[in-house]
């Protein structure tokens, strides 16, 4: 039995990070580049990659947690 810290939302969290990161990189960056908004394009690119990185980190962290307990 798991100790109570995990209530089953980790898969949903990983999905949201992945989905939002992909959408930011796919849609927002393209739109900002087309409009010539370079600072916004850079900020969107950073946020998209951070979201994807967080998805990977949360997935790996949850996997390690599940293996330990």
TrEMBL record:
Keywords: Membrane, Transmembrane, Transmembrane helix. The keyword Transmembrane helix applies. The chain crosses the membrane at residues 6-26, 46-65. This is Uncharacterized protein. It comes from Paenibacillus allorhizosphaerae. The lineage of its organism: Bacteria, Bacillati, Bacillota, Bacilli, Bacillales.
């Amino acid at each position: 039995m798991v100790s109570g810290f995990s209530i089953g939302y980790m898969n949903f969290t990983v999905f949201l990070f992945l989905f939002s990161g992909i959408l930011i990189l796919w849609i927002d960056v393209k739109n900002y580049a087309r409009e010539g908004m370079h600072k916004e394009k850079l900020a969107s690119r950073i946020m998209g990659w951070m979201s994807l990185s967080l998805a990977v980190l949360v997935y790996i962290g949850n996997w390690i947690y599940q293996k330990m307990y």
